[in-house]
Structure formats: C-alpha cells, structure tokens
Amino acid sequence: MEEEKKKIKKPLGVARLLPAKCIACGARCQSVCAKHVIEMSESGEPIIDASRCTGCRRCIKVCPAEALEIYYTPEQQKLLEEIARMEAQGGGAAVAEPEEEVEEDALPKGHGEYKGLWVFVEQVDGVPAAVSWELLGVGSTLARQLNVETAAVIIGNKVENLCYEAIAYGADKVYLVDHPVYRYYRTGPYFRAVCSLVRKYKPEIMLVGATGVGRDLAGAVATELRTGLTADCTGLAVDSDRRLLMQTRPAFGGNIMATIVTEKIWPQMSTVRPHTFHMPEKDPNRKGEIIHEVIDISEDEICTKVLEIIQGKTDGAVDVAGADVIVSGGRGVQHPDNFKVLQELADELGGVVACSRAAVDAGWMPQERQVGQTGKTVRPKIYIACGISGAIQHLVGMQNSDIIVAINRDKNAPIFEVAHYGLVGDLFKIVPALTRQLKELRAQSKS
Ligand SMILES: Cc1cc2nc3c(=O)[nH]c(=O)nc-3n(C[C@H](O)[C@H](O)[C@H](O)COP(=O)(O)OP(=O)(O)OC[C@H]3O[C@@H](n4cnc5c(N)ncnc54)[C@H](O)[C@@H]3O)c2cc1C
In terms of domains, do 131 and 90 share one? Predict the structure, then answer.
C-alpha cells in the first residue's frame, strides 16, 4: 500500500511596511484588508497586526508606492525549509497549495450582474471636455485589471463623430444617445438618459469629470439610482479581488486623504477633477462598437428651456490648469511685488505664475491662480514651487506634475517629499540665478 503522503500547508507569509516608501496615500491598504488587521497611525502609515495577517497580499497589490512586502516569520521559515527538504527528496510529500482566504462577507453579493467600466463623455456644442479622455485613459487601465470592457456614454445632438474619438482614446464600446433634445446640457433629460442606460446595461463603475456639468449630472444620477458617489477624486485604483473601486480624495477639510469604497451598491460612481490623470495616447486605428440608444423623451416634457448661451469672459485670463510650465509662489514670496521675480523665470520658460492659498489669502494673487484642493488641479511638465511649504491641500493639486522642483529655505519642508529636485535656500537668490542661467544658455544657443 502506498504510504500516505504528508501534507504541509505552504505558509503565505505576513505583510510588513517599508516605512521609507510609504506616502500615506489614504489608507488604501487598510480599506482592502478583509481580515481587518491594519490600523492607521496618526501620520497615515499602516500598523499591521502580524499575528492575524493571513498573507493574502491584497494590501500589497493596492499600495501605490510599493511600500509593503511579504516576510516569513521564523516559524514559517522553518516550514518552508521543511517543504523544500521534502521536495528535494522527491515525491515523498505533497504540499498543499496556498489558498487565499477571502471572507464570505468581504465579497459583494449580486455583483455579478454588474460588469464593465463606463466614462461619461462631456461635450458642449460637440466639443468634448478633455477630462473625458483623461478618464478613458485611466478607466481602460482599471478595466483591464478587472478584465472587463471600457465603455463611453455620449449624449448630445449630432455627436456621432465623438464616438470614434472615444474609441481612439480607449473605449471598447460607445453608448450613443443622439437627439435634438440633448443639444444643450439640462439635468433632467441627461440624467434620465444615463439612468435608463445604467438600468439596462448595469456597469459596475462609472467615472464622470468633476466639471460643473459632471458634478451636477453625477449627483442626480447617483441619487436616482441610490448608489454611492465619491466626488472630486484625486486617485483611483481597483481591488480586483473584491471588484471595488478605490476612490481617494481629501477629507476632513483636506487634513487626511481618505480612500472610499462603495461596497454593496452599483454602479460605483466617482467624479474626478480635470488634469488628475494623464491624457492617453490617441490611437485612430482602435476599433470599437457603437450602440445607438433611443430614450423615450420629447421637448414638451422638459420644463427647462435654454434661451441663450453666454460665454464667460476669458480675455487675458491665465490658464493655470492647462499650462505646461508653472512657477508657483507661496507665503515665502513675502510681498505681491516679489512675484515679478517668479514671472521673469516663468517668461523665460514659457510658463505661467501660480500660487498657494496663503498667497491668495494675503491678497497677493487672484484666486484663479491658486493651486490645490480649493484651487486648480494642475499637471504641468514642470512645476517649480517657490516658498511653498507643501501642505496636503496644496499637494493634492500639483503632485501629479511630471517634474516638481521645490525651492525652500527649510530643508524639512514637506514639499521636498514630493519634489523630484529640491533646492534648499533663499528663493530670492535661487530664482534670479536660474533665470540668469537660462538667459545665458539661450544667448549661447543663438550665437
Ligand atoms: C479646507 C482647506 C482647503 C485648502 N485649500 C488649499 C489650496 O487649494 N491650496 C493651497 O495652497 N492651500 C490650501 N489650504 C491651505 C494650506 O493648508 C496651507 O495653509 C497653505 O498651502 C500654505 O501655503 P504656503 O505653503 O504658501 O505657506 P506656508 O505654509 O507658510 O509656507 C511658506 C514656506 O515658505 C518658505 N520660505 C519662506 N521664506 C522663504 C525664502 N526666502 N526662500 C525660500 N523659502 C522660503 C518657508 O520655509 C515655508 O516652507 C487649504 C486649507 C484648508 C483647511
């Protein structure tokens, strides 16, 4: 008779923090932990109860900073050595494969009906809002992780051309509602159309730009569908095991970054500020399906009438949100006249001057130049922060910039934690020196 094989369950290890890497992203690790073994410290870092951790690796998968790793306790090390020894002996032992332990309660029930990620494509007079394409970019990445399709929802009048653009930016499918009733955005007809499509096709996630229109529409849709909506997200990720959208945004007056999940109702809805995510590459060769939908609605049923569209005055306004180079000043600039020093550097780089809220509150700069939670979200190629400490409310508006240069005389200023290049010193010496250097380089390249 064959000797019964000895079975040893392979240990999965235990998650542990690499403190130097943690960026206090807003407790994403804690929110996905099915065993509730993670507490957050006051500084926003996870404290893991190793004695209860099952090594399921969910926290590791969602960590945006690779700040968590698996390690094996001495007891687990011994087991691993034992398994290796038995394997080396060849066939003397069968090792039970590790099973990821998932609590029944952790999995949403009835979720199976809802599938796919949708992006609402906003347009005015057929001109799409760029944030819609940004959301298709991030949306298709998240959808791939969930192994589902990305769909765009386009509502308007004579807007079929936008369907091809949506496909080029990452949509696999487009639901198109094209009718004169939808020429102008009006809450009633638009939210009726979106709700009708959601009820019919049941997407699990819906992303909407946090613009005036998007905020209005998403709120109405979420209320009607009685689902959760997380407004003004600054970060998105998915927990593919639980099929949850991890929605990060500032909370409690911007004092913490919270990661919010809509666990038991669908679709999971988020609005996301423009410039939070990269504009994806446009691929005109992409193929996708266009589904024409007809909503039973007539103009007579709609009480809101659009009489005239009056464009806001933009003459001379500086487009901080759309700039490629931003030289930004904070309280360290000390006086409104000193912003000239920043303007000279910005002119040399072909950029614009922005500021922190401290500079706005002091009356040195207009509010439309403010970057941050209550100001603009920016994503320039270069962001030069001069005399800005790096409060979280400022960081949420600029931390996704391609290159961040911080100039601050306090070497411990938090801005250096997000900066790619840090210059410790007096901005009134460093900024003019940079401008001079650039002028010299330009002169040399001409001669
Ligand atoms: C609900 C809420 C929303 C908010 N929204 C925003 C927002 O949208 N945007 C925003 O920016 N803030 C916002 N804030 C305010 C935020 O908390 C900070 O108070 C603000 O960002 C600080 O601005 P600051 O960095 O310019 O000033 P400070 O924090 O005072 O920092 C000034 C920095 O300048 C440095 N410095 C001084 N002199 C020099 C020099 N000569 N050379 C070099 N460095 C120098 C100092 O070392 C210091 O680090 C918000 C706050 C709340 C509560």
Answer: no
Copy the structure tokens of residue 40.
């957050």
In a domain, 370, yes or no: yes
Over residues 177-207, the pLDDT tens digits come to: 999 999 999 999 999 999 999 999 999 999 9
Which secondary structure element, helix H or strand E, spans residue 136, and what is its range? Answer: helix 130-146
Nearest CA, atom 40, ligand 1: 426
Nearest atom in ligand 1 to 355's CA: 11
Could you tell me if 175 and 153 are in contact, meaning their C-beta atoms sit under 8 angstroms apart?
yes
Do 149 and 284 reside in the same domain of the chain?
yes
Task: Answer yes or no: are the C-beta atoms of 95 and 10 closer than 8 Å.
Answer: yes
Q: From CA 174, how far away is CA 121, in angstroms rounded?
A: 10
Residues 291 and 172 in one domain: yes
Report whether 57 contacts 63 (CB < 8 A): no
What residue's CA is closest to ligand 1, atom 4?
393
Domain end among 283, 299, 315: 299
Q: Are residues 119 and 242 in the same domain?
A: yes
Helix (H) or strand (E) holding 258: strand 256-260
Report if residue 318 sits inside a domain.
no
Distance CA(95)–CA(408), nearest Å, equals 57
Query: Domain for residue 180, yes or no?
Result: yes
pLDDT value of position 108: 44
Question: Ligand 1 centre and the CA of 430: distance in Å?
Answer: 19
Cα–Cα distance for residue pair 386/405, rounded to 1 Å: 9
Tokens standing for 358?
């401290």
Confidence of residue 35 (pLDDT cuts 50, 70, 90): confident
- The count of domains in the chain is 3
Residue type, 447: S
CA of residue 420 to ligand 1 center, whole Å: 19
The separation between CA 233 and the C-alpha centre of its own chain, rounded to angstroms, equals 6
**Closest atom, ligand 1, to C-alpha of 390:** 25
Residue 228 has φ and ψ, to the nearest 5°, of: -85, 145
What average pLDDT score do residues 89-94 get? Answer: 62
For residue 404, the cross-strand partners are 383
Q: Taking 90 as the threshold, does the pLDDT of residue 174 lie above it?
A: yes
Tell me the torsion sign for CA atoms 225, 228, 229, 235.
negative
